[in-house]
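Sanity check record (used in CI):
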Amino acid sequence: MEDPQTHDSAVLGAGQDSRRRYVDINLARLHQMGIITQDGGRTSAAEDFRIIKRPLLRNALQPGSAAANRNLIVVTSALPGEGKTYCAINLAMSIAMEKDHTVLLVDADVARPSVLKVLGLPAAPGLMDILLTEKVGVSDVILRTNIDTLSLLPAGRNNKHATELLASQAMSALLVEISSRYPDRIVIFDSPPLLLTSEASVLASQMGQVVMVIEAESTTQATVKEALRRLDHCPHINLICNKARSFPAGDYYGYYD
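Expected output for non-specific protein-tyrosine kinase:
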């Protein structure tokens, strides 16, 4: 199987330096933050995300499925602070441990990007730069990491027309490219909150699967229902109950369809 990271480097434009597109993630720091790492051992979060990822992978890779973009998974929430970025990173890290898959983690919260910040990395060109100019391609901005099976696509520059850009033909073409270039690749999008921006529902409408993070004992039922109404056009919606302190040890996350 061709290494997707190597292929991305091979198609850089003339004069591009592939070395600046490599980043070193401090895995010891992430482990201290409670984020899953390959050498982090059998933590409760690692076990929970093993359960969470399995139906997502099954849906993404189901033979003969006609679902469009089924390997594109967006992680969102109704409101800020519910833990969507934390869950998106953990989900990507967990899938990156699989033997037969690679993962591309996309920061699509373009107004308030935080994936690179959580990973301890500086801001970099990314998604918005691809959509704003034809001179920038996916291979120019994808960041290779010290985890062989994990790549990153930063949010890139902020733009007041983000909603229109995410709904554009350029975005549709980009999604086709990143979903079909490698059959073993799972793409995780960290999305804005559903009830604060219009970008989130526009993005979700183009995904094969949606994961909505709900903060336990905080987000109201009415808020969840309103957020789900924004997703009524999405074929596969999954919920993660996050920060549920009343669960027994080892069950910090709950998951259901």
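The chain has one domain: 44-256. If this sentence no longer matches the regenerated tokens, the check is flagged for review.
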